[in-house]
User: What shape does this take?
Amino acid sequence: MTDKLKKEGKFSYAEAGEGPTIIVLHGLMGALSNFSSTYEHFSKNGYKVLIPELPLYSLPLLKTNVKNLAKFLKEFMEFKDLDNAVLLGNSLGGHIALYFTKHYKEKVNALVLTGSSGLYENSMGDSYPKRGDRNYVTQKAQDVFYDPAIATEELIDDVYVVINDRNSLIRTLAIAKSAIRHNMANDLPEMKLPVCLIWGKHDKVTPPEAANDFHKLLPNSDLFWIDKCGHAAMMEKPEEFNSILHTWLTSRKL
Assistant: This one.
């Protein structure tokens, strides 16, 4: 996806297609390429798809939190002259989408959450990254997927680089702590917009009970399960993910 990035001002983003806008929000350790299949599918089937590169490692440390990442999304939408959009988020990206919706609901047509944080403290993993421990990184990367083979050496290398750089590591920890502070449980019942929840049945990071709780608390939500799938459904089962989402968007006239 990096070859498709546009750089304008402080924003780097991928953009393709025409039609109603879907903004994709990646996770804490998630690359934009995690959504490459979703990006290709929807941009060729009647939607404009935008994937901004979130400033996870470039904000001042005190501003590295869910609140300021939501503010960044607002600035991005203003920069692109977008009044509203469907927000699609995985993991931390889902949490940013939820926080954004709480404060700017008029700008959100619908939410699509897959393996979203926002309710469970273990959503960023049950322990903090250990620098220099490649076996630990390998295990954590494999835990994201039902099929550990999807955690390629290249993907493991990318995560290893992040947590062995002091600058990115302390920001990773700051965001993880911010996600715990910004629990959304009390806010969800007020979010009346359409919400599509697509969850891997074998998600170890945001487990199935998280999906069930989101479904109970969000008054206008639909929950879809993908079997033999972990935390990143759009990567592990891209065709099934795209099919579920496309059918849902059509049924909701979005």
Summary: The chain has nine helices and eight strands. The chain has a mean pLDDT of 91.
